[in-house]
Design a protein that fits this description.
By secondary structure, the protein is mostly helical. The chain folds into two domains: 110 residues, RNA polymerase sigma factor, region 2, helix turn helix motif (Rna Polymerase Sigma Factor, Chain: A, Orthogonal Bundle); 110 residues, Arc Repressor Mutant, subunit A, CATH 1.10.10.10. Helix content is 63%, strand content 0%. The chain starts with 15 loop residues before the first helix and ends with a helix.
């Protein structure tokens, strides 16, 4: 990982607004702090619109460049991250429109487990069986979230994964707070419905893959030990 190209380490403790002011006064190297501070949040939000990892990264880069160019337009009335996210959402939507026009399919999803996996990382030191159950549960949840349309997926990820407030989400998406609540509630409902439908699928209890390998290995181990 590259080190920050900043000599004055006290700037790390400055607020985003203070850093923006110093950047506008000529200390453009401080923009790296803003990028690092917002990388994770911006990735998660854009992941709510774009499923391809390269598309997300490209959109992030373009978002940061556009934000830097427009930094003088930031009015400090909202959080810098909120202002940045709005730029990012516009970039993601523009890319989606471009994809639709060129009839490109977005089908290489990025596992949300590479992010924070919806608050499951607090579970520590699980035994192998519990770890497998946790991993499979996260995968199922990720698939359920990926079934949502962006208008529902984005606010859901913002609230459940990033912990953003209804007010912040409202400002980022330029919709009312009531609409945010409705969309998040609808997203939860659709996720529950998806998981319920999956639970009654006959294939859900098939004894295959890792389960099959595990029991087979144990049986063969006992046979060859005797």
């Amino acid at each position: 990982m590259k080190t920050l190209r900043i000599q004055d380490h006290t700037t790390y403790n400055f607020s985003d607004n203070e850093i923006v002011k110093r950047i506008l006064n000529g200390e453009k190297e401080l923009y790296e702090i803003l990028v690092r501070r917002n990388n994770q949040k911006l990735f998660r939000v854009l992941r709510g619109y774009l499923k391809n990892e390269m598309d997300v990264k490209d959109a992030m880069q373009e978002t940061y460049l556009k934000a830097f160019e427009k930094l003088g337009q930031f009015n400090h009335q909202s959080e810098f991250s909120t202002w940045l996210i709005r730029i990012g959402i516009n970039e993601a939507l523009a890319r989606l429109n471009s994809f639709k026009k060129s009839f490109e399919l977005i089908d290489h999803s990025v596992p949300l487990s590479s992010q924070r996996s919806f608050k499951t990382n607090h579970i520590q030191e699980l035994n192998p069986e519990r770890k497998m159950i946790q991993k499979e549960s996260v995968v199922l949840l990720e698939k359920a979230v990926d079934q949502l349309k962006p208008k529902y997926r984005a606010p859901f990820i913002m609230q459940e994964t990033e912990g953003m407030s209804v007010k912040e989400i409202s400002h980022c998406l330029d919709i009312t707070e009531s609409n945010v609540k409705v969309r998040v509630h609808r997203a939860r409902t659709m996720i529950k419905e998806y998981l319920f439908d999956l639970s009654i699928d006959q294939n859900i209890l098939e004894f295959g893959f890792s389960k099959c390998d595990e029991i087979t290995d144990k049986v063969m181990s006992v046979i060859f030990d005797n």
